[in-house]
Every structure is written in structure tokens, then in C-alpha cells.
Amino acid sequence: MRPHGGGQVASASGPGGQVLAPANALPDVTPTMSATYTWEDVVSVNYTRLPFPVPHARYMEAPLDTGRSAWRVMPQVLAWRLRHGERALVIDVQSSVPGEILTRGIDLARSRVELTAGSSCCPGAASPCPDGDEPWIASEELWTFTGPPRADAVVGPLLYCASPYARDAVHLVRSLGQLADQLARTASPLPFLAGPGNHDTIPVDPSLVRLLLMYLWFLPGAIPFLFSGAEHGILTAVNREFGFSLTEQEALSYDRLQMFSPGPVDWDSCHDTSQQARLAPFVRLLLAARRVAGEWLRPGQPLTLMPVRTQGEPTCPAIGYHVGEGTPSPR
Questions:
Q1: Is residue 136 a contact partner of residue 89, using CB atoms and an 8 Å limit?
Q2: d(CA 254, CA 236)
Q3: Which domains are delineated in the chain?
Q4: CB 101, CB 75: distance < 8 Å
Q5: How many Cβ atoms from other residues are within 10 Å of residue 155's Cβ?
Q6: Bridge-partner residues for 153, per DSSP?
Q7: 171-221 pLDDT per residue, tens
Q8: Are the CB atoms for 185 and 128 separated by under 8 Å?
Q9: How far is Cα 180 from Cα 177, in angstroms, rounded to an integer?
Q10: 211 and 286 in contact (C-beta within 8 Å)?
């Protein structure tokens, strides 16, 4: 297990509606990612009879091998986290993790079985979790608003299109519109994380944060998500996956990325400290407005896209949406 990002989630769907810190994800990687994970890491997180984990899209076709060490180690990792108070888990590519792994981990957390104390994955001991204390699980599904049976929510695709497309307003608006349309056409969508980006995306342009939050946080089923200071103008690259050009990826060596080489964030170097001061009241205002909206924002609420009329020739397309029954006139 290696750190795989983190963030802050404020969610009515989470336990008690409090702010939650997602757990480090369970990694699912392919051999082509050996620059960020060693080959030993790749081979160790393998639940199949194959020599190495297969891409998650084909995972269900792979024969399982419950004798592999991952079937013993990963439930202990889950149990250790649950026994130490974590109640929100983000499972990396959950469709590639057998559901039995989660069941074993939760059952182990509630039992009185001693974990592998002293090992690198489970240092120290903790009391068993109370029976009936179910963790809240978000599945890292990048292309859909649905997820596996054990998922309470999904990461969803919106996190991966906001900041990566923010360099081009036309592409940004089109992408947000297409994903909102996909959400509207999804029969039974799960709650999903909504924010300008996460640890895998290019840092978002701070000048767009307010508009993005207003658009994303009022979609039905949206879980407000803020990641690691980017919304305060801290443009720190954590990982180099979504939104980076090939030139930028080559310039960002892994020893310069916060995901692989932890380093402090220099808040004093924030390029716009006045924005940092103004953002917190704005976030509180949006969260208060969401509480007033209540049932209008529940997952599956009817969503209708509509064009937005502008004066003169717009520099880029604009799109809005209407939540609830009925189709309003364009405005």
C-alpha cells in the first residue's frame, strides 16, 4: 500500500453528514505503470490466477485465486483502517476488487482476531469495530455514475473533466454539458464527487473555481468535494495524469510530484492570498444553499439541460440546467 491521494468531502451521504477524509485507495495497476509502482507492488495486488492484474474492464473474466497473498493482506488493511476510526473509504478502481475482499475486511474489523501487528501494512493494534457500523464506500468509477453493489457513491467523471478542460472554455462547456446529459440519462445514478479536480488532475485555474463549484455542486446527487488547497490558488501538481500535455508530463519527474515525494505546501507563496480569504465564505454560502435545496438535489432527481441566451455574440457556448419536473424556457 502506498499513499494514493486524499481530499475533503462534505456529504449528506456520508456517516452523519460530517466532513470526511477518504482513505488511501487500494491500488490497481498495470505493468505499464511500473514507473510509479514497483513490479513487486503490481504483482502483490493480484486476486487472479494470471501473472499480473488485468485491466479492470476485463477483470470479471479473470479466474480468481484465493490463495494469493492479496486475499489475506488487503482485508487486513481494510480492517486496520476501520479499527482506527476511518469510516469513509475510496476504493481505487473498485470494479477490479472482488466484493469478497470488502466483506472479509469489514467482518475482520468487527472480529476479535488480532491483525498482523508490527507489519508495514498494519502497525499497532486497535479495538474491534461495533457490529452494524458500516463504512461509507466510494468507488473510483471514472466514466459512469453507477458502481458495484457495495458502493454508496462513485468518484464519477466530473472530477476528471473540470480542471483538465479549463484551458479551453469551449471544450470545458461542451464536456460539462455532455456529462450532465449523461447524468440525466442514467436510470439510477449513485451520489458522485463534484469538484474542480483531484490528485490525478492538473491544478485548476483559480479564476474559474467559483463558477465550477456553482455548476457542479447543484447537480442532483453531487457530493461537494474540495482537494488539497487547489481551490485556494495553490497550484501544486500531485500526480500527472489528467490535463497535462506530454511536454508537461515529461517535465514533472516523480521526485517533484507530491504524490510520490511528500513536501510541505508553501502557503506564503500563494499567488492570490486575497482569493484564499474570500473563498471560505463562498463555500459556506454554497453549502447553506444546498441545505435549503434539500430533496431537489437527491440522486436521480430529473435534470433538464437548457441553452443560456446571451447578449451579442458569446465567446463560447453556455449551458445551464433545470432540476425537477418540467422543462423551463431558455434563459
A1: yes
A2: 13
A3: 8-301 (3.20.20)
A4: yes
A5: 27
A6: 138
A7: 888 888 889 999 999 999 999 999 988 888 888 888 888 889 999 999 999
A8: no
A9: 5
A10: no
- Please give the torsion angle defined by the CA atoms of residues 36, 40, 45 and 46, in that order, rounded to the nearest 10 degrees: 120
Contact between residue 75 and residue 99 where contact means Cβ atoms under 8 Å apart: no
Which residue has 490535463 as its cell numbers? 243
Biggest CA-to-CA distance, the chain: 69
Helices (H) and strands (E) in the chain, counts: 8, 9
Tell me which amino acid residue 253 is. Answer: S
Nearest to 95 by CA among 149, 49, 51, 52: 149
Angle in degrees, CA 106, 125, 9, rounded to 5:
55
Q: In 3-state terms, what secondary structure has residue 138? A: strand
Q: Which residue type is seen at 195?
A: G
Find the helix or strand (DSSP H, E) in which 89 lies.
strand 88-91
Q: pTM to 2 decimals? A: 0.79
Amino acid at 207: S
